[in-house]
Specification:
This protein has one domain. The chain is built from five helices and 14 strands. A hairpin with a 6-residue loop joins strand 2 and strand 3. The longest helix has 24 residues. The relative contact order is 0.16. The N terminus is likely disordered.
Amino acid sequence: MTLPLGALTHLESVHMLCPLRTKRGLVMTKRAIWIAFAIAVIVLAQGVQNVRAQSTGKGDAREGFVEMKWPVGPADKLRVITLRIPKSYIWSPSSFVKSAVPIPNDYLGEQKFERVFVLEALLPDFAGRTAANENEFERGISERTITIQVTPNLGTGAGLDIEGKPLIDGLFRSQQKMLVTDYDRRTKGITLATKPDRFGLKHEGAIGNLEQFRCGIGMADDIYYPEADPKDMFAVCGAEEIRDVTEDARWCAKPICTQYFYSSKFGAAIQLAYRRTYLKNWRELQQRAERLLESIDKIQ
């Protein structure tokens, strides 16, 4: 599992911390990851008051809505609209920050807008946060929750187009190249290979010394994708040979999947994060995420 869009979503998963690769193939250590996470939490906390000031609804903190400024259109024709998001679906990073929409943000003239937001739901029914299921949400994506990160592409950076399939296809090509790096081959004793199709998707990923990840820190990844080009979705998951603890009790791992697709409503790449045991339901997860996003009110 890798985080090319700069997501914070997976850093809450303490059960299976996976490598975060740089362009040179270097791997962040567990300590470095937690330092980055601590900084992220501080930054998020600074944004809480601004977000809460725009909240509506009284009583239970999970009720009501949050209004958030959101960019629409390419960079040269950018405009800002207001999104009205149910508070019960707004992602909170573990117990540190409640009801906070992740930042950073940017400006169009004097108008501030968010560059990313993250929703969270409880599987298998995509339920929002309530008093009854609060504990389930606290356990995060290493158990039964799914996060939905929405990241607009405001330009053509990194050679990516701003519309539909080309955006996801570009992300796919980038992730495919980084799946097994020269650094991985030298230090982990793994290489890249084609693997059997799974759940209607083509499949390739790491092979070799994967026993090293039985209960240790680190991860090797597989990538799943449709056969047709350009790619309109794909998923990066912990290699299938790295068994989930529910599949083989001799392993300690809880591998995570990151699934990507495009939302025409938001003009954005959507990034789902969930435990790999749910990968067989990837179509349903994407459909439910799309329905949740479609339910968000857009105020022009």
